[in-house]
Amino acid sequence: MATARAQKEEKVHLSQFSKVSLTIHQRRFCVTLMIPTQLRKTDQDPIWSRYRDNFPRQVLAVTRHLETQIMQQLAEKHGFTHLRLYFEPYISMVPQKGIRLTEIAAKLQISRQAANQAANQIQSAGYIERTPDPTDGRAKRITLTSSGMELRRKGLNAAIRLEAELAILAGSSAATKSAAALLTFCEKNSLLGQESPHRMLDRAPIIGLLPRFGSYISQRLMELVKERGHPKLKLSFGHVLTFIGPEGGRIFQIAALQNVSKQAISAISQELEEQGYIYREVDPGDARQMLLRFTHLGRKLIEDSVDCIDDLEAEIRACVGEKPFQALRSVMQKSYHSLKPEVSVFKEPAPNVELLAQELKQRLTLEGCRHLAFLLTEAEQEVNYHDE
């Protein structure tokens, strides 16, 4: 019996990414046997450690966090409704005379179709409208409505307050140098419009420039990873892949972090599953939920992404200079570790108490179970004492 059990345990170890083995042994053995050790032992895995904490990730996470803070303030304090994170460039990049949708798409490095879909939703929310282009009767320009202009004005005030908090967090001098580095990079790569559409760049430069910088990083990193043997990667895949931590990812949590619908994340997940990067399994902590996990190919994608980070950083460093780059890196690193925008992605999950109890009953003698019960009772009494 012991030999047969050991052989089965070895089988789980050798086929740790097999959905079949994981499903079978989930019911037969304790939860620890389901864990893909290549991805869970993060302390001994330099690839995973780098993947979870690097400059591009810090930039994107801090940008998303700051935009979310602004959006929440606009909704809660000023009553703006139906806001989404992707509204930002369509509001902030529109000059007084308006802008063609193709120009926004080019700046964001997305297709005109994708830009049009976003613009339709923002127009439905009442923040932009399409007006005839005075230079071309066949074309339309995106212009802000009165609600859109008020949204931008209130958003600027919120950004100014957050920029001040960021300067305190990272240091005023470092923040100033970071803003200069961001401006240099965005100007050299034509990420800004021909005219500054509002006062954001003067009064809240980091928050004003980070979205453009972050969009460039996402696009460029995808291009570099594609060259490493992943030709079917899409920019939208980052909305899921980035949020799958060592313990997997949950669709509802991924959607909540980005303020998008579960249906949108589920559709992207389905495409990633079809391409072989992830698979789904029942959440051991909640049988009603599904976990997204990386396959072997997904692991290879992580490794290739990490390798490309050095190439991307070298390009940015060459553009802005070594000292400005280090200042920017320092600010992003301090902000990321202080704000903790992705703590829910990488935190250890709560243990499944029922599975843990079953395992302990198998491993402990009756006397051992009684002693454990005594220790847990003592712990509960200590908690109650402190609560009083």
Architecture overview:
Helix content is 66%, strand content 8%. The chain contains 20 helices and 5 strands. Mean pLDDT is 81; it is low at 1-43 and 379-388. The chain is globular, with a radius of gyration of 25 Å. It has 388 residues and is mainly α. Among the domains are: 1-34; 57-219, Arc Repressor Mutant, subunit A (Orthogonal Bundle), CATH 1.10.10.10; 353-387.
Task: Name its key features.
globular, 388 residues, 5 strands
Chart the SSEs and their pairings.
Blueprint: H1 2-14, H2 19-28, H3 37-40, H4 46-52, H5 55-78, H6 88-92, H7 101-108, H8 112-124, E1 128-133, E2 136-144, H9 146-170, H10 172-188, H11 200-203, H12 205-226, H13 238-241, E3 249-250, H14 251-258, H15 262-274, E4 278-283, E5 286-294, H16 296-320, H17 322-339, H18 343-346, H19 353-363, H20 366-387
Antiparallel strand pairs: 1-2, 3-5, 4-5
